[in-house]
Amino acid sequence: MSASSTAEAPFVAKTKVGRFTDFVDERVGGSGILREFGRKVFPDHWSFMFGEVALYSFVILLMSGTFLTFFFDPSMAETHYQGSYTPLYNVEMSVAYNSSLNISFDVRGGLFMRQVHHWAALLFVASLGVHMLRVFFTGAFRKPREMNWVVGGVLLILAMAAGFTGYSLPDDLLSGNGLRIIDGVIKSIPVIGTYISFFLFGGEFPGTAIIGRLYVLHILLVPALILLMIVIHLFMVVVHKHTQYPGPGRNDGNVVGYPLGPVYAAKAGGFFFIVFGVLALMAAAFTINPIWNYGPYDPSPVSAGTQPDWYIGFVDGALRLMPGVINNFHFEYIIFGHTLTLNVLLPALVPAGIIFTVLFMYPWIERWVTKDNREHHVLDRPRNAPTRTAIGVAGFTWYCVMWAAAGSDLIATHFHVSLNDVTYWLRTLFFIGPILAFIVTKRIALALQRKDREIALHGRETGRIVRLPHGEFIEVHAPLDEYKRYKLVGFESPVPLPATPNEHGVVTRKEKRRAALSKWFFEDRVAPATPAELEAAHAHGHHEAIEAGADQKSLSH
Amino acid sequence: MGNHSDGSPNHSGTVATAGQNEVEKFQDPGLPPHRLRLADTDPVAAKRAERQVAILFGTSVIGTLIFLVAYFAIDLGDDSTIANIRTQNLLLGLGTAFAMLGIGTGIVHWAKALMPDHEVSEERHAIRHEEDRQAAVRIVDDIVEETGIKRRPLIRNTLLGAVALAPLPALAIFGDLGPRPDDKLAHTMWAPEGGKLKRLTRDPDGTPIKASDVTIGSAFHVIPEGLNELHEGKLNAKAKAVVLLMRLDPNSLNPSEGRENWSYNGIVAYSKICTHVGCPVALYEQQTHHLLCPCHQSTFDLTQECKVIFGPASRPLPQLPIAVDAEGYLVATSDFKEPVGPSYWERDEHERLINS
């Protein structure tokens, strides 16, 4: 009161929210932060939502997971089920499985929470994967975002780890067999495999320790690491500002979009509720992981048509594809009196190893090949980077072949074909699938570029057929306005970079290899249309003559 | 050379940086003119959008109520049925879905229809400033200088040595996560105890199997006698000892040398644990005499001593030598003659140990 009467009246906020904000600000100095972020510009595009879906799925995982921990007991002690699911009444099982059944049948909302949690986990890994594909195909991993791409890759691995550790916790028959497969893979590791297996399981498989250990990893260590990585990831997004799709008015020096407050915050915040709502709908209507159907873990039975959660599928598929014996050549052999079992070791480690190594290194590989050290904030349309897009699709195809192999038995039973034939075909596709995908994708990308060029120069097809006085039929093309045209012509089309000598005047072998790769990258290229070409097209084209008036306007610059 | 930005609109739109190629490419026309939405110009449309948003938020309230009603009205007491649980799950889920989607779509609709939709352009700033970089380099240099680590290699080297060794205790502590493997994987419960041969019993009830009960074409899931009575490590023992028992026409078996008396009257017993990665080989195709592992489809041919004929396994399933005791029950005459289950580094060593 007295302050307001003095000559230098301090700032007094008008609204309640304003006064509260002022209270906080006076104590922590938040106005600087708000000034920085309150109107920060975020570009808008539907494909930017995948990362958001991943983030929100993770938040939902934390919430539903916390609920589950209140009721779950990770003990492998033996007990007899006394709950309300009668088919398993009095069956001997572990306390972990027992408490999972209780969550499903005797805790109100427990089944719903379990299903939300499982669906959210599947969606989390899926949205991460799709987000990474988006980042790859649009070239968003380029400088200065290479490190954030690596953080994203680490997040993908952590998400799979979180998924797998959680998948095994109910100690049901299906996940128990999954663990046994993991144990078999671990045992195939040379020299230390048996020891790792014994250390992990606290002795022989299955032991009585593994569920408790996975539980600690699942609810503490892995989520903490994921959270840490998310913080780093988002911090870097703020530092770099978001990338944007190419278009009129957008370049590497600016960022065009909606301000954080209110539009972007509202859209992104509202989207959290939408993701939650969709997951709730899935949990309400679609059963996921009905552990009561599988029964408690027992090393003797197994159900046919078993499937891991989808993100582990590609490793499981690789395990299935690898032949153990070709004619009389065994992939398991004895070296220096020890057993080396390559029929397990190779498929378990090599494909995943190749995928993640290439994934982590790709930004540096492309930077080396293209010698492109500039910062990129404008994305590539996938067609405008045909070789990169083809590499991505080839890798994706390879992944999908292995993933499909994880369901080889279901493919065989659903389509009434021979299981062995499915496997033989998939083995073939494992090798030629990526090559075919590369060739086809590159051709499609180039064709789309040519189509863009065509449209930029001659306008879009209107579907209006006109008969000229001398009898010729033509389709009228409507010229684009300059904004739409710029979207089609405003891209880079690098040419191959021949090998250049270094400072000693020597062309090194590494540089020669780089030049060869550069040629492979950029040899097939479609240059963007130029104003001169547009002018020529208009001068020579007949059909545009009809709409000459409009053409003149668009040529004004 | 080195310039691969020809034709590139790298800095398009900013005339100041126009290079020599500028004539050859299109100029950036700048942001397209902003188009007003219906709600921007028509107050009626704006009012309508406002009502739509309010209705969506209202839907959310209804969803929350559905959840609460479903939660309290459906009681999962002792007499609850699966149908009750399903209904409750459905209603809880639908309630949550409405509650969340109502808020979410409401906010997004509000943002899209009523909040300003002007796209704005903001300058990007350099991530690093040269001034900062130089200052940082100076600071690091000063820090290193003040520690004197360069002038005192003795300190540096002993510190490096100490730090390199310090994690060893941590590693050692992890050594007690589990016991040493020793030869545990080499033996199963089938080894005779005190000269008494173990009977083959049914999984899971543990009743012994008479040879006369095993008809041609039948298959039994088998566990060793005494497994169910184990108090500790029952699953561990079972994970190694489970066996599949089948009876074929004795003429179709082709026992190799030394295995002629491992079967009885066409009855053979093989380890059920796949030699690939350890799934139970649970599918017996009676007509073809194949055993199929449902996890990775390794296929074993019973008539060739379970040789691998398809799939990722590389080794035949180990055979359990069986005979019949005085009362006509099937017994194992010894343990497996090789380690069962997936291969591991010491496996060959263990096999030699078993056979020595």
From TrEMBL, chain B:
Domain Rieske: 267-331
InterPro entries for this protein: QcrA_N, Rieske_2Fe-2S, Rieske_Fe-S_prot
Subcellular location: Cell membrane
Entry membrane topology: Multi-pass membrane protein
Annotated TM spans: 53-74, 90-111
Keywords: Cell membrane, Electron transport, Membrane, Oxidoreductase, Transmembrane, Transmembrane helix, Transport
Main subcellular localisation: membrane
Top-level taxon: Bacteria
The keyword Transmembrane appears for this protein: yes
Record carries keyword Transferase: no
Function noted in UniProt: Iron-sulfur subunit of the cytochrome bc1 complex, an essential component of the respiratory electron transport chain required for ATP synthesis. The bc1 complex catalyzes the oxidation of menaquinol and the reduction of cytochrome c in the respiratory chain. The bc1 complex operates through a Q-cycle mechanism that couples electron transfer to generation of the proton gradient that drives ATP synthesis.
Stated family: Belongs to the Rieske iron-sulfur protein family.
Protein name: Cytochrome bc1 complex Rieske iron-sulfur subunit
Native source organism of the sequence: Paenarthrobacter aromaticivorans
